[in-house]
Amino acid sequence: MTTILNDGPELRQTVATACRVLEARGLVEGILGHVSARVSEADLIIRCRGTEGERGLRHSAASDIWRVSLDGAKIDVPDSHSPPKELPIHSEALRHRPEFGAVIHAHPPSALLTGLAGLRPRPVFGAFNIPAMRMALRGVPVFDRPILITRAELALEMLEAMGDSDVCLLRGHGITVGAPTVEQATVVAVNLHTLLEVTVQLAMLNAEPPDLSPEDIAELPDLGSAFNDQLVWQALVAELEDPV
Predict the structure, then answer these.
(1) Which one of the listed residues 10, 23, 86, 215 is annotated catalytic?
(2) For this structure, is 92 an active site residue?
(3) Domains along the chain?
């Protein structure tokens, strides 16, 4: 079933807010990284870059979010803005993963270090961050080419590596995350960043704690989307210096 989100000022503002949250949390920096949302079977909206007066993801606004087709055609993008060169990450993910309503591509340093060091995120913590633990339990797939994904065939290679996961580590590059909504995708990306940060820090400490036991995993509840996504999203937005 394809997730369809209606285009409008509110959704564009949500995409812009997600960009600001990712910057505040250290997943993106400057002008690198982008968030998209599906708005029809054939179109998406995405954070575009201004050719003049670009202020970076920290200052993203609804006026930076524009509509393009999955084939890359500009729908309402003005001359003052241009879609990201890695638009195929978003268009192909939305084309081939109908359960996705939003896609995030970001460059957290934790992903760079995890990938380059060949580290494997492991389920070594529990109640600290249950969604991140379950992410480690499922495994974080890796796309092993440190390249710009500027063509559909390259995006398809990434999706093949991603499999049926909602996350993918791009070695020497960053991460790709998909989810039904922008809010959910943002929370997943933040949780993935936390998992990768812990992975890197444990490696720096030369620490190898054991994986959680099945008994301990069974004690950790699924708190549900209302807690894991909605409330966390609200908290992330509230942390912004100037939440909109």
Answers:
(1) 86
(2) no
(3) 9-238 (3.40.225.10)
